[in-house]
Amino acid sequence: MLGMLDEIDYGMLLVTADAQVSYLNHAARLELDGDHPLQLLGNTLRAHRAQDVAPLYDALAAAQRGLRRLVTLGEGTQRVCVSVVPMPGPTATGQTDPARATLLVLGKRQVCEQLSVQGYARSVGLTPAETRVLEQLCAGARPGEVAARAGVAVSTVRTQIGSIRTKTGAGSIRELVRQVAVLPPLVGALRGLGGAAGSAGPRR
What are the HTH luxR-type domain coordinates in residue numbering (predicted)? Predict the structure, then answer.
């Protein structure tokens, strides 16, 4: 089961009411970097900004009452929505455990994951140049910005976009990005090597 959760490209954590982390999947370990609104200090989950502390703990307290919350943390490009979901916790008597675990699901900070884009590009036969264009479009770049970064004419990029749309059947750039955004996750096969050094901490 834990291995299956590591194949999901949404960060997922199980925490207690006082934000002690008992489990986090591989995606969560990657997400909780220095720029994320949430930080992992030992086994404790903390809000990076002081103004996010109250919303986080209010949501965790609500989860203990069986209430779901969607909280927005951080600011600017690092703003992230976090789904706070109470987990059932039956005791031996069949009653609900008052110290139930809470599931946190981290929203993404980018629409399209690079591995998913690359896998999709291979599946529809995009060239390496077209794949790079697709990656930038999915990151929000406009054709002119893509051209400037590559040092080519805008007309060249527009030709590549036309080829991408033909191969994918997308009627517009917006539809193209939507196709990639709804792809199932494709997580790197080498992820275990990166986590081998971090054996301490919450269970994965």
Answer: 123-180
> pLDDT per residue over 170-194, tens digit each?
999 999 999 988 887 666 544 544 4
Long-range CB contacts (within 8 A, 24+) of 83-87: 83/107, 84/59, 84/60, 87/14
Do residues 9 and 113 lie in contact, with contact meaning Cβ atoms separated by under 8 Å? yes
**164-183 b/e (C-beta count within 10 Å ≥ 16 → b):** beeebebeebeebbebbeeb
CA–CA distance, 26 with 182 (Å, rounded to integer):
20
* pTM of the predicted structure, to 2 decimals: 0.69
Q: Is 3 helix (H, G, I), strand (E, B) or coil?
A: helix
**Domain map (residue ranges) of the chain:** 2-109+187-195, 114-181
**Domain 114-181 CATH assignment equals 1.10.10.10:** yes
- What is the domain class of 2-109+187-195 according to CATH? alpha beta
End-to-end CA distance of the chain: give it in Å, rounded: 10
